[in-house]
Amino acid sequence: MEEQRDPNHPHICTIERVVDETPTIRTLYFNDDLISKVLPGQFAMVWIPGINELPMSVMVSEKDGQGGFTVRKRGISSTGLYNLEVGKQIGVRGPYGNSFDIKDGKILLIGGGTGLVPLMRLIAFAKPSNEITLLMGSKTKEEVFFEETAQKFQKLSEHDVIITPVTEDGSYGEKGYVTDVLEKLLEENTYDAIYTCGPELMMYKIVKLANEKGIFVQASLERMMKCGVGICGSCCVNEDLVCRDGTIFDGQYLAKNSEFGHFQRTKSGILEKI
Fold it and tell me: pTM surpassing 0.90?
């Protein structure tokens, strides 16, 4: 009989393949049956040997039993993960957190940067009745990624998926911010739900617009996270711990949170403006 796995103990995984998404973003795929089945919005804690541990959303894979971590090369820890090659090992524990509440009907997904990762998984978990519109925000054409992945899901899925890239400089797709495109869409369409993940100021405006229109909305929050299990308190947003109570929060609830869209904490726990 196979021994039951403790999600709080790191499971050692080997990097099987690496996909360069942009010059500064890549996805590392690995075999892990448990993590490959996480719900959209859940996350894992990833140990980079000799460097640090990071919270990561799990990218969906076309291969059964395989998951992926999409990382942007930025700080010491993320760069350490980014630099791992095929054959290198990582420690993975989890999954942790809650998941998106996928409603029936017409849904709108809005992602910016690596915030697209949980939304890709949401597409894979969407209901056959869903009509999906996906807004993919980036600064320039060179930073657009996951479009081909979303198109593959579109061909394989049982539902319609409208994919709209949005670049701030207008070099590809719609010009402007995804929030600008959202305002236009809300003038011309009705949606049963909106789901978003990405920069917090972007999500703040999306949640505000959705609440004003009376549309169900959920956002996946990102905070400094050290333990992933609600002990250290570094990921608090007012009274909530993102790792334990989230990372998914309803828009009506976030509207009452004085920190959302305004403040975040540094590594030392000091509150600063976003």
Answer: yes
